[in-house]
Amino acid sequence: MRSRLLALAAALSALPLALAAAPSAHAADPTTMTNGFYADPDSSAKRWAAANPGDGRAPAINASVANTPTARWFGSWSGTIGTATGAYVGAADARDKLPLLVAYNIYHRDYCGGHSAGGASSPSAYASWIAQFAGGIAGRPAVVVLEPDSLGDYGCMTQAQIDEREGMLTGALAEFNRQAPNTWVYLDAGNPGWVNAATMAQRLHEAGVRQAHGFSLNVSNYLTTAENTAYGNAVNRELGARYGYTKPFVVDTSRNGNGSNGQWCNPSGRRIGTPTRLGGGAEMLLWIKVPGESDGNCGVGAGSSAGQFLPEVAYKMIYGY
User: Fold this and answer.
1) What is the pLDDT at residue 20?
2) Is 243 exposed, middle or buried (0-12, 13-18, 19+ CB in 10 A)?
3) 1 pLDDT exceeds 50?
4) 64-74 burial, b for 16+ CB within 10 Å, e for fewer?
5) Where's the active site on this chain (predicted)?
6) Rounded to whole angstroms, how far apart are CA atoms 260 and 245?
7) For residue 104, is it left (φ>0), alpha (ψ between -120 and 50) or beta?
8) Where are the beta strands (DSSP E) in the chain?
9) How far is CA 146 from CA 209, 215, 223, in A?
10) Is 149 among the residues known to form the active site?
11) Taking the mean position of all CA atoms in its chain, how far away is CA 226?
12) CA angle 252, 306, 147 (to 5 degrees)
């Protein structure tokens, strides 16, 4: 780990100032404070495998999905949020593992898409919720992906709504900086098929990404790691040229093993991707969406709700059919 960081520092020192990475909001590196990533013992895949030991699909799902370190998503279903995040990172910390968390409760969540609509009841309610989220983590090491789709989902929003959303995200980042000094926060930046790199760089900057450790790509999507790496590098070129800094990025590889067929909502024929690890063309490759969890009432998940675990989908995703 130390050699990787030294090599990165040497490479950055050779770059022009405009393209040098902006300093992280935190001096601490949570990947060096822990011994590997935390596998959620209560993930939807883990619960299903434990409840269905006699099912012929269970061994494959348990081996290939349920025991892979994957993010836990937090929203209105999580109860008292500071208690929930505190318990989760506490359990990981007790095992000297690095937990992955997703904050998914922004006001007017999925406002234009609708499959995952919901979120906090108002901007002030969100500000309170995210402050408690960060406070629950406190000084323990963690990685947080902040509000998937929030910067890609502008198509039906007014400028006032966009400004309001960007203000909520900026406020959220300030809370993590204030309360969670050993957390790396990645502000979500959609995926390469959604918004061009120049536009996304502007949205990230206006939402305060300079305060974040970095940005996340491909959450709950299927585009290849190579496509996402090229896009992340393009976003960084725009950040550097326009604003004088760049940021690390992570890629959700949980369902991109076969790439995309052009559909985003429960497409058939997809495959699990590279398990959670450091590097791989990005700062980290992460499983952020649990393979087998539905995107909504669509595609091969017809009749399901967003987030529902579908064992047949997970099973087929292991083998790519």
Assistant:
1) 52
2) middle
3) no
4) bbbbbbbbbbb
5) 149 (proton donor)
6) 31
7) beta
8) 72-74, 100-103, 142-146, 183-188, 214-217, 249-252, 277-278, 284-286
9) 11, 9, 20
10) yes
11) 17
12) 50
Residues paired with 251 in a beta bridge: 217, 285
Whole-Å CA distances, 234 to 76, 191, 258, 301: 34, 12, 23, 33
Question: 18 pLDDT exceeds 50?
Answer: no
pTM of the model: 0.91
Gap between the Cα atoms of 126 and 115, Å rounded? 20
Q: Which amino acid is at 98?
A: L
Contact residues for 190 (Cβ-Cβ < 8 A; gap 6+): 149, 151, 152, 200, 217
Per 3-state DSSP, the chain is made up of helix, strand and coil in percentages (nearest 5) of 40, 15, 45
Residue-level pLDDT at 128: 98
- Active-site entry in 40, 93, 110, 149: 149
The token pair at 212 is 């974040």
Alpha-carbon gap, residue 205 to 210, rounded angstroms: 7
Q: Which amino acid is present at 197?
A: A
* E strand or H helix that includes residue 314: helix 311-319
The C-alpha angle 5, 36, 229, rounded to 5 degrees, equals 55
Residue pair 236/270 in contact (Cβ under 8 Å)? The answer is no
Residue recorded with tokens 């996304």: 200
Residue that is written with structure tokens 């393979």 in the block: 291
The three-state secondary structure class of 147 is: coil
Closest CA to 146 of 199, 197, 202, 74: 74
pLDDT in tens, 128-165: 999 999 999 999 999 999 999 999 989 899 999 999 99
Per-residue model confidence as pLDDT tens digits over 43-92: 999 999 999 999 999 999 999 999 999 999 999 999 999 999 999 999 99
Phi, psi (deg, nearest 5) at residue 150 = -65, -25
